[in-house]
Amino acid sequence: MSTPTILVAGTPEALADIGAEFVPATTPAGPHLSALGIIRSEWIKLITVRSTIWCFAVLLVVSMGLAAIMSLALDLTGTDITTVPGTDQARFVAQASTFGVFFGQLIVAVLGALAVTGEFTTGMIRSTLTAVPKRLPALWAKALVLFVATFVTGLVSSIAAYVVTVSIVSGQGLHASLFAPEVILPVLGGSLYLGLVAVFALGIGAIVRSGAGSIAVALGVILLLPVVLQMIPATWATDVLPYLISSAGISMFGLMQFAKVPLDWSVDLVIVLVWVVVSLGTAAVLLKRRDA
Q1: Residue-wise pLDDT tens digits, 54-78
Q2: Radius of gyration of the chain (CA)
Q3: Who's near 113: CB < 8 A, 6+ residues apart?
Q4: pTM for this model (two decimals)
Q5: C-alpha neighbours within 13 Å on the C-beta side of residue 70
Q6: Res 223: pLDDT
């Protein structure tokens, strides 16, 4: 009777004996998301946060409420409405419909800051950067999703404010079509500005990484800086004022003008875009260089 051979694990004989049945395990591929997958994940993260729903709901209510207040304050007693040019009627309707954008910019700035600082606070940013090792696609996807969501919500809010305005001022004889150039262009411009302000605040949030700090910086630039410049009795302060993001944005949809010689809306748009590019570009550089 032959003696059974005892194979010691790890020896060449043992490896040869199991070689025929051994199938090496495949190394799992690292986490990889397509561009569409990154956008979809950022969309889910944005709409499943309560702060997003609250900010958009407040934006809608504020736009409709301010439009109602401005329309109810209009008193045309003793005015022959037939003598008021149609363009002037359309301009008033446009101003009432976009009046909420002045306060809406503060709401979307808070939303933009919270959209990214929340991930740094909870540590979710590590999971995001693990799934997207190149990092920058995640930032671009956040900016794209936030811009589209804010633009659409701003457009819906402005159109709802237009409906409120027309329903009130029509009792005094004022009429203006939504698709009149004097109305639709300010409505689109205000919605575009809201989307860009949200992305600007997103860049601030990625730079500062703190929710409170980011909101303070964003609101300081948007709200406080124009007030400070208006209080400085110097020519340079007056000259700089039209080139602030909020000044150019409000001028872009025709609510107010801050320049001695009114700038074209395209110039105001370029000014706003420069602020957004500086904020988002700085955030991109720091996101690549700093640890999560």
Answers
A1: 999 999 999 999 999 999 998 877 7
A2: 28
A3: 201, 202, 204, 205, 211, 214, 215, 218
A4: 0.85
A5: 21
A6: 92
